[in-house]
């Protein structure tokens, strides 16, 4: 699944009716009135913006401007984080060896996820930034934290370190699942 489309979907689901109305108004100069009147959701608006090539995964300035105008700093920080991660991961895609363990951890670690992330060595300020960017989604907070760990460790990121940290937090069942 395209990470940019996932991000846009996440934005769309967080829009209030007022946000959507403001966005439609702001897009009035770029999108025809008839098309805008038919828009009922953020997803529909984003589809039009994508079609007209006003936004793309490597072209987010217009989107950032829209979000600034409706005062959605929370979404702007998520957008900036997306751009940063894209730049860091541009030369090579995500390391395949970590995809499954991260998926297993995200599916099985609950509210104690911060203990695991601290055990992996992620700093409190980074943790706070991730939580602030995803305030109502624990699974996304855990996922972004694990991605931050991968980015920080780079080539030194090892599945055995994840397993050791899980066991250090008494999350043995999850560690066993990762080992499979």
Automatic annotation (TrEMBL):
Keywords, sorted A to Z: Apoptosis, Cytoplasm, Immunity, Innate immunity, Phosphoprotein
Cytoplasm listed as a keyword: yes
Cited function: Apoptotic adapter molecule that recruits caspases CASP8 or CASP10 to the activated FAS/CD95 or TNFRSF1A/TNFR-1 receptors. The resulting aggregate called the death-inducing signaling complex (DISC) performs CASP8 proteolytic activation. Active CASP8 initiates the subsequent cascade of caspases mediating apoptosis. Involved in interferon-mediated antiviral immune response, playing a role in the positive regulation of interferon signaling.
Single Gene Ontology BP annotation: extrinsic apoptotic signaling pathway
Keyword set includes Lipoprotein: no
GO CC annotations, alphabetized: CD95 death-inducing signaling complex; cytoplasm
Domain Death: 98-180
SUPFAM superfamilies found in the cross-reference section: DEATH domain
Assembly and oligomerization: Can self-associate. Component of the AIM2 PANoptosome complex, a multiprotein complex that drives inflammatory cell death (PANoptosis). Component of the death-induced signaling complex (DISC) composed of cell surface receptor FAS/CD95 or TNFRSF1A, adapter protein FADD and the CASP8 protease; recruitment of CASP8 to the complex is required for processing of CASP8 into the p18 and p10 subunits. Interacts (via death domain) with FAS (via death domain).
Subcellular location(s) of the protein: Cytoplasm
Organism of origin: Syrrhaptes paradoxus
Signal peptide: none
Alphabetized InterPro entries for the sequence: DEATH-like_dom_sf, Death_dom, DED_dom, FADD
GO MF terms held by the record: caspase binding; death receptor binding; protein-macromolecule adaptor activity
Family matches, as Pfam families: Death, DED
Protein name, as recorded: FAS-associated death domain protein
Superkingdom classification of source: Eukaryota
Domain DED: 3-81
């Amino acid at each position: 699944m395209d990470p940019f489309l996932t991000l846009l979907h996440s934005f769309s689901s967080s829009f209030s009716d007022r946000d959507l109305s403001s966005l439609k108004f702001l897009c009035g100069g770029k999108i025809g009135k008839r098309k805008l009147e038919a828009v009922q959701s953020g997803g529909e608006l984003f589809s039009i913006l994508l079609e007209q090539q006003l936004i793309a995964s490597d072209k987010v300035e217009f989107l950032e401007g829209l979000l600034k105008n409706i005062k959605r700093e929370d979404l702007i920080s998520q957008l900036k984080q997306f751009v940063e991660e894209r730049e860091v991961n541009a030369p090579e895609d995500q390391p395949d060896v970590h995809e499954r363990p991260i998926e297993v951890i995200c599916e099985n670690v609950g509210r104690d996820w911060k203990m695991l992330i601290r055990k992996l060595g992620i700093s409190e300020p980074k943790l706070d930034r991730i939580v602030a960017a995803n305030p109502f989604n624990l699974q996304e907070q855990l996922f972004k934290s694990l991605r931050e760990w991968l980015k920080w460790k780079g080539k030194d990121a090892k599945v055995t370190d994840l397993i050791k940290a899980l066991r250090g937090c008494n999350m043995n069942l999850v560690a066993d699942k990762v080992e499979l």
